[in-house]
Amino acid sequence: MAGASPSARAEVIVPPDWAAATATAAAASSEPAPPVVVVCGPKNAGKSTFSRLLLNSLLPRYGRVGYLDTDVGQPEFSPPGCLSFHVVDEALTDLLNPTLRECERCCFFGDISSKRDPETYLNCLFHLYDYFVEKYRSGASEPLPLIVNTPGWVKGAGFDMLVEMLRYICPTIVVQIRISAQSKNLPDGMFWLDCGQTGPNMINIDAPFHDALNRSLLIQKDSYGMRERRLIEYFKQCFPSDISLTTNKELAYGLTSLPPYEVSISDVMVIHLHCQVPPSEVWHSLNATIVGLAISCGTIEAGRSIPWCAGLGIIRGIDVQRGILYVITPVPLEHLQRVDLLLQGLIEIPKSLLQVRGCVSPYMPTNVLHRISERDINT
Ligand SMILES: Nc1ncnc2c1ncn2[C@@H]1O[C@H](COP(=O)(O)OP(=O)(O)OP(=O)(O)O)[C@@H](O)[C@H]1O
């Protein structure tokens, strides 16, 4: 597969079976409720691209479309590490690239793959789906169609998780994208149901391989680079939109000079999502990391609470003597005031923000844990 940047390609190709699948979903009965469409298939098969097209096809009829973003490695609308639920009310203009959008609900999983903790991953997903059902299926708000784009991990434990996901969501339409390497595809048919059970409308489509000039369409993505760019875009939101920050160097300087929020250590609880940290090391472990800023108001399910995530923050420094954390985040103050949990996972500050020639990163000096001078945080 070619290694060119996906954004270099001018336009999306819509093969006839893709067009037919989106038309079927858009015309599906809205009784008793608009469709719930799950899009599945192996990695890099076109699931996200198809989901964007599907969203645009559902919009004219419904005006608003729900989107459950379940790919923590390459989320459609959120920063990496998050599962989120969005309501989209305008057509997506860039059909080949993900774009950041404000979410209605988000859970911070804190890793770029569900492998490390499938149970928590599924709990987050079910929790978001329950939120959708409660709000958009119970009469509280106008019912919306829902698109669920799934990760491309379709073998072994990834397959088992997909089966659980499908059984929980009970979609009305499942679109399965199939690639030419048959062994990499999901099983044909309603593989998640027991024999004899009736299931949804099952639509198989092929991955789009070549354009009219026989050029490969499915470009291997630079996942690491995409995640870095997504985080950079996310933290750019710390600045007013009229401030021009075109290079990473400008952003790194900008973040250095941004006055951070002060958070009293006694006001927050720290949860390490994927590792255990001795109490004496908690503050050291937080320094210079990205955390999920969460609100512990989720419901208790299976004995554990799933907090909502208001957004991400960079712990820029910690003054242990004064009991203060310094946090940089684009999360608005009114939401930030409700944050009472710091969720630390494995999402790292992009290297391109840490290693900028001529810019001493504020996150890395060795004394930052104990002594942060006024000049450091205000300049
Ligand atoms: N219909 C299409 N027209 C043009 N390019 C496409 C089309 N479908 C997919 N591509 C390109 O192929 C690549 C993979 O597509 P996409 O991201 O939609 O796959 P995916 O199955 O969601 O991948 P992953 O499992 O890694 O999330 C992208 O670079 C995308 O731009």
From TrEMBL:
Q: Where is the NOL9 C-terminal domain?
A: 256-350
Where does it localize? Nucleus, Nucleolus
A Gene Ontology biological process term? cleavage in ITS2 between 5.8S rRNA and LSU-rRNA of tricistronic rRNA transcript (SSU-rRNA, 5.8S rRNA, LSU-rRNA)
Q: Give the main localization category.
A: nucleus
Name the domain of life. Eukaryota
Keyword ATP-binding included in the entry's annotation? yes
Q: Which residues form a coiled coil?
A: none
Q: Give any Gene Ontology cellular component.
A: nucleolus
> One Pfam annotation, family name?
NOL9_C
Q: Which GO terms describe its molecular function?
A: ATP binding; polynucleotide 5'-hydroxyl-kinase activity
Q: Which protein is depicted? A: Uncharacterized protein
Q: Which InterPro entries match?
A: Clp1/Grc3, CLP1_P, NOL9_C, P-loop_NTPase
Query: Where in this chain does the record put each Clp1 P-loop domain?
Result: 41-188
Keywords assigned by UniProt, alphabetized: ATP-binding, Nucleotide-binding, rRNA processing
Specify whether ATP-binding is a keyword of the entry: yes
